[in-house]
Amino acid sequence: MRIAVAVVFAVNSHPVTLGDRPCAFHQVDGKTTGAHVRGVSPQLSAAIAAAHAQQWTHALDLVARAATEGDAEAGAQLATLAGEPGANDWERLRAAIDPTLLVAAPQAERLSDGATIGASRGFATPAMCAWMMRRAQSRLEPSMVNDSATGQMRQHPMRTAYTCAFGPPDRDLVIAVLQARAAALTNVPVAMHEAPNVISYEPGQQFGLHVDFVDPKNPMFRRELEVLGQRVTTVVTYLNEDFDDAPTHFPALKLNVRGGVGDAIVWSNVISDGSPDVHTVHAGMPPTRGRKWVLSQWLRNKPQPYNL
Q1: Are 95 and 109 a contacting pair, CB within 8 Å?
Q2: Rounded distance, CA 223 to CA 183, Å?
């Protein structure tokens, strides 16, 4: 099943009154700053920019050239994309990567008839998953929720996991691949993607029942919808599996989902006419042992200001 969402697909609340809007790069009025990737060489930054523009052959050639010239970070990213972390035969690694296959996503299998939800098995490679966990490890911070009564971000006991947003200054080639695969899976172009978030759940940590769409009936979110658009689609990729319990729970669908390493679940937050699908209310259940890591990607129906 291919989730065809384009511009009409799509947390605010079901019985709960809080929404999930954790990305620090959501700026409703005005553009965010920091279009350049920080902490990397100019050549690697150029490769990342080319990847974000979906110029993949050029991006891979640039990163391979940077690696050949001694850029260790470029080499690490190239080896991760090739599925050989630690390898350093740059010419061979570059030749092994087919740009078209690199950004292709496995088609999703439908998981329920009650909503447009499916699983894309092997959406991310194990090397990409390990890369994302390492990148997020030292940057995690308490998660926030969007209070629908005030429109303000704040901490709340319904969401106790830690999160890390990867905005424009933090982009890399692995993130660019995962965004491109999400675009291929959903038909929502990368320009309409929020900054991806890695979320970490330690034992007992959770994200209680919520929905991912923006409530169009709530006047507090009117400006957000005008500028940023509706959050039409969600893609959640499971980065590890060495934990117990902690499924993604959809009570209205009588569905619990737990993927293997690199598996993704994707669902539309809206129905065919663009109105919210309340059947997508869900919760991130707590692990009872180990630590759960996921990558969440939220896709809108308008270009995001920091992607322009």
Answers
A1: no
A2: 25
- 145-147 β-sheet, strand order: 18-19, 145-147, 153-154
* Residue 237 amino acid letter: T
Angle separating helix axes 126-137 and 72-81, nearest 10 degrees: 140
Structure tokens at 141: 């911070």
Q: With residue 178 as reference, give the H or E element that holds it.
A: helix 173-186
Mutual angle of helices 56-68 and 72-81, in 10-degree steps: 130
What are the two backbone dihedrals, phi and then psi, of residue 133, each rounded to the nearest 5 degrees?
Answer: -65, -40
Which structure tokens are listed for 152?
A: 């303000």
Residue with tokens 């690696």: 67
Query: Where does the pLDDT of residue 18 fall: very low under 50, low under 70, confident under 90, or very high at 90 and above?
Result: very low
Backbone φ, ψ for residue 131 (5° rounding): -60, -45
Express each pLDDT in 170-195 by its tens digit.
999 999 999 999 999 999 999 999 99
Which residues have a Cβ under 8 Å from the Cβ of 302 and sit 6 or more positions away?
Answer: 192, 227, 228, 229, 230
Find the radius of gyration of the CA atoms of the chain. Answer: 19
Burial class for 272, CB neighbours closer than 10 Å (0-12, 13-18, 19+): exposed
Domains of the chain, by residue range, sit at: 18-36+105-307
The strand pair at 264-268 and 287-290 is best described as: unpaired
Which CATH code fits 18-36+105-307? 2.60.120.620
What's the pLDDT at 147?
65
Checking if the pLDDT of 16 tops 60, the result is no
Least confident of 26-30, 66-70, 185-189: 26-30
pTM over 0.90: no
pLDDT at residue 95 greater than cutoff 80: yes
